[in-house]
Design goal:
five-stranded mixed β-sheet; 10 helices; single chain; alpha/beta; six-stranded mixed β-sheet; Metallo-beta-lactamase, Chain A; 13 strands
């Protein structure tokens, strides 16, 4: 399936990354239809009409990951088109069982960032600010594995930003969602707190962040390296194009950030000054509010876990979690 059969429809363009990119693939599928707002729905319908495609002709609605700005309209479009909604297996439950999984997610987010050292008031602000999306409580979702083919596209596992992030490849373009973005760096750790827990473990609040049991930053780096080795042109989930060299920029960004994280610990010479991920995040990013509390603490935790795997830091306390350099 050639690039000229893939067209971009901009929907809901209010975020810092630019407009959401929904992609119409021939007349068979829409990838990442956009956020669950009436404005985005009207923009999506207008884009389909410009392309001369009636919703009834669609076979699939595909979603790269569970975040509402990508998946929010998927149930509505799938129902309108009588199409199959499909996405990576590890992310599917958060759309398929939205109401139940949202409650589990909020419990997990609160427990995770609390153990990262985030103060109670800031934890409460994150949870209280998490608005319910106007999505069905339950939606049929087909689970996809790496290498599956659907609507003429190949599912390509691209974990890191979320646990089950999945890109979709045609002959010469690869729809990469938030795995690679043209102007901002995809968050790792805070954008899906499941990635800070063990792969395949219970995702409810009762589970714990085990030392060294997962490496979200390592998974994201592997995703970037995998994408760099593929021949297709990358099309992002926000904005219209990705410039050559962007993947190397992102890899360099995380190499430099890991050095800054390590430096934040090396500035202290005693284990008594070991730091929580939250304290490291404050040194990296300054004052954080709202959703950026979770993003900042989660990203610091992801870098600390990667440094722990590399033998450069060690966990010296568990509640809250504290790290120190290996001396």
């Amino acid at each position: 399936m050639a690039a000229d059969s893939v067209s971009r429809i901009e929907v809901g363009g209010d975020g810092p990354e630019g407009g959401n990119s929904a992609y119409l693939v021939a007349d068979r599928a829409v990838v990442d239809p956009g956020p669950p707002t009436e404005r985005a729905w009207q923009e999506l319908q207008a884009g389909l009409e410009r392309a001369g495609v009636a919703p009834a002709s669609l076979e699939y609605v595909l979603v790269t990951h569970w975040h509402a700005d990508h998946a929010g309209l998927a149930p509505r479009l799938a129902e309108t088109a009588d199409a199959t909604l499909a996405m990576g297996a590890a992310d599917a439950a958060l759309v398929a069982d939205y109401a139940r999984e949202r409650e589990r997610r909020l419990e997990r987010d609160a427990e995770t960032i609390r153990r990262c050292g985030v103060p109670t008031a800031a934890v409460d602000s994150v949870i209280d600010g998490d608005a319910v999306s106007p999505m069905p409580d339950e939606t049929p979702v087909e689970r996809l594995a790496d290498g599956d083919r659907v609507a003429g596209l190949e599912a390509v596992a691209t974990p890191g930003h979320t646990l089950g992030h999945t890109a979709f490849a045609s002959d010469d373009v690869l729809l990469v969602g938030d795995a690679v973005l043209p102007t901002v760096t995809p968050n790792v750790g805070g954008s899906d707190t499941r990635t800070l827990r063990g792969s395949g473990r219970e995702s409810g609040a009762a589970s714990t962040i085990e030392a060294g049991d997962h490496d979200p930053l390592g998974a994201f780096r592997s995703t970037l390296e995998r994408l760099a080795d593929r021949p297709e042109r990358l099309l992002p989930g926000h904005g219209a194009a990705i410039e050559q060299g962007r993947i190397e920029e992102l890899l360099n960004h995380h190499r430099e950030r890991s050095q800054r994280v390590l430096g934040a610990l090396e500035n202290d010479e005693s284990t008594a000054a070991a730091k929580t991920p939250w304290e490291v995040a404050r040194e990296l990013f300054g004052d954080l509010e709202g959703i950026h509390v979770k993003f900042g603490a989660g990203e610091a935790a992801a870098h600390l876990q990667a440094l722990e795997r590399g033998g450069l830091v060690e966990r010296v306390a568990d509640d809250p979690i504290r790290y120190d350099v290996v001396r």
